């Protein structure tokens, strides 16, 4: 019998005590009979310079027992991965659902008027055709619906997809880049299912306060699948597409994850780590060496950012090593084919952030507020989101320093229309995950960010900044600003 889900809570606490080693709950003996992982279809715009997305209703059988209603773009659940190159591309977004949707291009540096946020709704039966100008380095992004008050349920139902910005030069860098072969886009999510396979979404107190977390891991819309990979170097583009769960990823055999890119693009060189934190909305590209040909799994520790113990989030590293047993996120079965890339000697030409050389025109403070843990509104600096209120204005081309603070629990803070640098975290140099260009950063205490505004956003279509725990965003932990 294959394990399809893991249990949260008490049972897990035992696994991490070292009695059975750190991967005690990982069983890879049945990979031969598991379903094969599929990737989202690739919509390549390199030649066509256009792409079309249609939001539609569907039905998906995630687990045995029955199919459940879902939504997606161009398919029943989730959407394609759209590959973009620098320059102009025309998007057509159509909506066949009975509710409003939007397509926010998360991670793309587009002006406010094409950003796809809560001011650019595509009504039921409607269409939106923005002309997009891709003007940024290669990176992994994503798109998702962003209707205020409906983002959490919309994304949970499947209204999200992938983006890849490519400059066509990955061969020169020595990087794996064959989509679906040695370059895998992985949407990591969690869900809850009833006995008859229906997708369950909780609106209980716990889910509203900490964000909803399911007990079953879903990768690219599949449960318990196995990824077939060449026996060589494989690039994983990891997207945390969960509403609220924070992953702390590792390989079950302890082999390193070689981080090559964060949200906004390449690092200056690969950085090996045995544990990678990935919060909702964040992306990371890692190289993994499957050259030993052995079955292995990407695993994660339990999310400690929840429950009455959420206050320990400030001591994540200590807490995790004591409490966290690993659970499986995705299994890998290397084939006999040695693949195209066999060396980790790659030439990344990403630039390390250097905004501290520039004049800082403005400093701002943002505190992510949860009112009382009793159900007051979520807010930033005490003010819940107001669709008709512009919170501040910035100057196009200027550099600002933002200090973000979070108490009670950790929050992934996201800013539209800008790529930022993490200057410090709780007074220290940023952790590895935050050393490159970012648009989403987990605030577990206090972070200081430096950012330069290179794209305009008007009063009519301002940029958002918000917590990417989608329940918090929907409940008002969001603001909006103008760049002019
Ligand atoms: Cu990924 Cu404003 O969102
Ligand atoms: Cu965004
Ligand atoms: Cu939050």
Summarize the structure.
This protein is mainly β. 7% of the residues lie in helices and 38% in strands. The relative contact order is 0.15.
Give the SSE layout.
Elements: H1 10-15, E1 42-44, E2 50-60, E3 68-73, E4 81-84, E5 87-95, E6 104-106, E7 127-128, E8 131-134, E9 139-144, H2 151-157, E10 160-165, H3 170-173, E11 183-193, E12 199-200, H4 205-210, E13 216-219, E14 226-229, E15 233-240, E16 247-251, E17 257-262, E18 265-273, E19 276-278, E20 283-289, E21 296-301, H5 316-323, E22 326-334, E23 360-369, E24 379-380, E25 392-394, E26 399-406, E27 411-415, E28 420-425, E29 440-443, E30 446-452, E31 463-467, H6 470-474, E32 478-483
Parallel strand pairs: 1-4, 2-5, 4-10, 11-15, 14-22, 23-26, 25-32
Antiparallel strand pairs: 2-3, 5-7, 5-8, 6-9, 9-10, 11-12, 11-13, 15-20, 16-19, 16-21, 17-18, 17-20, 21-22, 23-24, 26-30, 27-29, 27-31, 28-30, 31-32
Description:
- By secondary structure, the protein is mainly β.
- It has helices at 10-15, 151-157, 170-173, 205-210, 316-323, 470-474; strands at 42-44, 50-60, 68-73, 81-84, 87-95, 104-106, 127-128, 131-134, 139-144, 160-165, 183-193, 199-200, 216-219, 226-229, 233-240, 247-251, 257-262, 265-273, 276-278, 283-289, 296-301, 326-334, 360-369, 379-380, 392-394, 399-406, 411-415, 420-425, 440-443, 446-452, 463-467, 478-483.
- Strands 11, 12, 13, 15, 17, 18 and 20 form a seven-stranded mixed beta sheet that branches. The chain has a five-stranded mixed beta sheet with strand order 1-4-10-9-6.
- Strand 11 and strand 12 form a beta hairpin.
- The chain is globular.
- The termini are far apart.
- Residues 1-23 and 308-323 have low confidence and may be disordered.
